[in-house]
Amino acid sequence: MADPILEVRDIRVEYPTPEGPARAVDRVSFAIHPGEFLGIVGESGCGKSTLLFAITQLLTPPARLAGGAVVFKGQNLVQLAEGALRTVRWRDYSVVMQSAMNALNPVKTVAAQYADAMRAHGYADRAAIRARSREVLSLVGIDSVHLNSFPHQLSGGMRQRVMIAMALLLSPELIVMDEPTSALDVVAQRSLMVQIKALQRSLGFAVIFVTHDMSLVGHFSDRLAVMYAGVIVEIGPTRRIFDSPGHPYTQGLLESFPSVYGPKIPLKGIPGAPPNMVMLPTGCRFHPRCAKVMERCSIDPPELYEAEDLSVRCFLREAAHVRCA
Ligand SMILES: Nc1ncnc2c1ncn2[C@@H]1O[C@H](COP(=O)(O)OP(=O)(O)O)[C@@H](O)[C@H]1O
Ligand code: SF4
Ligand SMILES: [Mg+2]
Questions:
Q1: Which of 19, 46, 211 has most ligand 1 atoms within 8 Å of its beta carbon, as the pocket-test mutant?
Q2: pTM as predicted
Q3: CB 3.0–4.6 Å: which of 88, 135, 147, 311 could bond 111 by disulfide?
Q4: pLDDT tens-digit profile of 96-116?
């Protein structure tokens, strides 16, 4: 297999709070290969967005990177100065955040925003910029007449497509997406997912796709990482996890897909809510909600136990692994 395009190693992020640091991301590690589609799932508040901000070097105070490395094509992004990062961002990897309305400049047309992004990376030829802007818009199925539109003149779905097209402008090798479809209705969500997948297949970029809705990535991701309370609790091939999830949290998520609308609702398969990151439960972070909790679960923290192609942070997996050996 080719070398990974991105290696995330032991990433830790904290938010200071009056009660002490909230450890939103705690020693997260994974790698992603060229052209691979990795889904990251977990309930709201589990640290998914914070992790993406840390990977893309877009963390802003009060968030603090407390440790770890993000190695992109052999270069540790954590050690790069902001100028060097600006060169890499958009050209080598790009980012699509949850709300295009926040990411787009409301007082500039789509054409002007695309031109700004391209000029910042050394493109000066107006005709070439215009041609590439048309091209990426057509890739996401938007008529080039909308180059002259302002963000507020577009529907929510079109704005997200405009953002995805912008992420494609410089043909990056990796696109990082944080719930890019969550503001859309179910039909628009599906059609955008199909489109993202088709683009990924034809253009060959890798994707990290964050969502709280596991059903959304089931058909589209090659691998899945499940996050709970700042840590990865399960990671492996998507098919494998859907067929036979290893972690009780993943089993709970699969039993009940949360609604994409409205307020947070308790998941059918999992009572309670994710913990406060300042006062994490002892032992296994999931133990207060776990249907399979054992005595040792509230005392020792489980490791990520690897068996075959799946890694699972649960003592039940350790036992299975030992019995197999
Ligand atoms: N500005 C902030 N100040 C303090 N804590 C924060 C802040 N933003 C996020 N957090 C903490 O980080 C955790 C993870 O948040 P986030 O990364 O947004 O999760 P997700 O994207 O999975 O919903 C939250 O549960 C919260 O404890
Ligand atoms: S380690 Fe224990 S509490 Fe944690 S998920 Fe496994 S069985 Fe449940
Ligand atoms: Mg989030």
A1: 46
A2: 0.93
A3: 147
A4: 988 766 788 999 999 999 999
